[in-house]
Amino acid sequence: MASRGVNKVILVGNLGNDPEIRYMPSGGAVANITIATSESWRDKNTGEQREKTEWHRVALFGKVAEVAGEYLRKGSQVYIEGQLQTRKWQDQNGQERYTTEVVVQGFNGTMQMLGGRQGGGQGMGAPSQGGGQQQGNWGQPQQPAAQQQNNFAPQQQSAPQQQAPAQQPQQQYNEPPMDFDDDIPF
Amino acid sequence: MASRGVNKVILVGNLGNDPEIRYMPSGGAVANITIATSESWRDKNTGEQREKTEWHRVALFGKVAEVAGEYLRKGSQVYIEGQLQTRKWQDQNGQERYTTEVVVQGFNGTMQMLGGRQGGGQGMGAPSQGGGQQQGNWGQPQQPAAQQQNNFAPQQQSAPQQQAPAQQPQQQYNEPPMDFDDDIPF
Amino acid sequence: MASRGVNKVILVGNLGNDPEIRYMPSGGAVANITIATSESWRDKNTGEQREKTEWHRVALFGKVAEVAGEYLRKGSQVYIEGQLQTRKWQDQNGQERYTTEVVVQGFNGTMQMLGGRQGGGQGMGAPSQGGGQQQGNWGQPQQPAAQQQNNFAPQQQSAPQQQAPAQQPQQQYNEPPMDFDDDIPF
Amino acid sequence: MASRGVNKVILVGNLGNDPEIRYMPSGGAVANITIATSESWRDKNTGEQREKTEWHRVALFGKVAEVAGEYLRKGSQVYIEGQLQTRKWQDQNGQERYTTEVVVQGFNGTMQMLGGRQGGGQGMGAPSQGGGQQQGNWGQPQQPAAQQQNNFAPQQQSAPQQQAPAQQPQQQYNEPPMDFDDDIPF
DNA sequence: TTTT
DNA sequence: TTTT
Asked: First CA to last CA across chain C, in angstroms?
């Protein structure tokens, strides 16, 4: 029990897409979201305004994944606290690849929806909000946004949560990496 | 100027190797280190103690890189505050690859050496640390640990630092991705 | 269940004194420590080096309080993650007073001892730490440092921990404010 | 230059009142705001839902203070990153008192407005939004919200900012503590 | 590859 | 009151 070291990530940004929800054989939910953070500055040489957006891959597990699936949408602004985790996987050519994600799981992380009642995903990294009369980025619980058909395990999660390994169902699956959205560069 | 969103990483861990120092054409220093954080827990099924170590790739720029090169060594314990950044590069087969790093640069991050030489502990009657052999993982400034021969730009760093683009020398180089150590899996 | 908003404090510093340990009627441990963080800078006008130390009052509850009592001592370096909490109390003149503390409790916080016994530094040829006298600010578990005689509840703690109210024994006591050390200015 | 230790506070919450803006003799702006964070949980004994709100006093300096004065209003949701600082002052009876604040200053902190375009301060700790047709908690820059007549220095700020003492105008004034709002308990 |  |  316990952990040695600190591994903490804090993000505030907007979702680039609706969450993708999957369920593990154990029944536990997993939500994958991508979050944009950006910085803007005036270029010292050209004098023009510039902006750079960083995209973060976030994986939420358990209860917080269910909440994400119900309430978060493309453009939603969120606060994320989680841990860095790098997964190894094999691409179609059998080559080893690595993907780094922010994992929100158990007591090791948290997710907070921000800006309740705000209208739209015009922010930062969020393009137009497909769909006509949609008012906000959350509100009433809805049908899961991007529920997947396949129920295989999305990510191997063999680490415990900090301070409370016992209460947290461990994921023990080692499935191939899922398909990612093509419009976000990873 | 300014930034929209929050992108922050906080790590406390130990270096897996001596820092690798490089210099950009501009003369700015870059230090690459890998930091281990770990968690241990008792397996619910087998009852045995388990441990998982996460390795983090950290890139420090400028003054903080020089300090890292002088004082940090394999095994050194550090506090790191930086930002997540994912770089795209091409592997030898021309395939796109992505690497995520924690970037410490300008006012957007900080590095603190931990546990060095503080051994005092007067509350317990611990003796002063005077004595011959080197005590900790740092002490006197030294020769750079792992200075590289090649001086080309190691990472593209086109983003500004938060709130202070002007004071921070921007790296404007777009060099090919540097060779990474082959013995570190990312 | 759940929380709205984020309330997080991160400290790395050294203890100004041995921890003070108390026990609540429920048997739960409470540790009070003070942590120093400091900044130094060169005065723009006089050109001289200046330093300012900030002292933080930290209250730890439960298991983490027991660990603090066993292993931490005056001078120990620690990483603290907790929440800000302001308590109201009456001074001897019946005047309302407020004290702000960093509370570490349940899954809402963590404490990490830093720099202990890690002295390895194989990268520099540093020798092993074997040797007689106590080396650092912690080592073997010991007798509680500053155990108090009075066992009444030290602080009212009516807030739940984030995300896990059920697993964490709540302190339900509303005792008069404890006597604070007179030699610490808050 | 530099700092020893880490002193960091991260808050996400809503303003309890409009910001109070003051200007120092040097012309630098200071904004004082109070931020609510809250937690709710189900009482284990009574089974009823309970909630506890924590109020945080935040002082912003310089440019970020001006932005706060222009855009933040009672009910606004913000992300705050700053440092803990405890000030000593004398009450009307000549007694020493201490007030702990979160200080956002220079490169040592940041403020992010959240939920752009959202309508109203109904959140958490924010009562009704006085004033008829007001749409959001920010939008167009406006007249400073609660500009003070007196221009004396609000808080002594003798500490430097981390890593950049030179660029930051130091406040050198030691004025009496300002009056606080009576409707927020400190 | 670190550390305990 | 700590630490460097």
From this structure: 33
